[in-house]
Amino acid sequence: MKLGREGCQGTARDFAAWASFVTGQPVSDAAPMLQTLLGQGVFKMHPDIEGEFMHSGLVEIPKRQEYQVSGNLRDSPIQMVRSRLETFLRFHGASEDFVMDVSIATTEAMENAVKYSDHSPISILYFIEDGTFHIRITNRLSEVRLEKDIEAGKYTSTTTLMRGMMVMVKLFDEMDIEIKEDEKMAVFSAHKRLA
Question: Is the pLDDT of residue 109 over 60?
Answer without folding.
Answer: yes
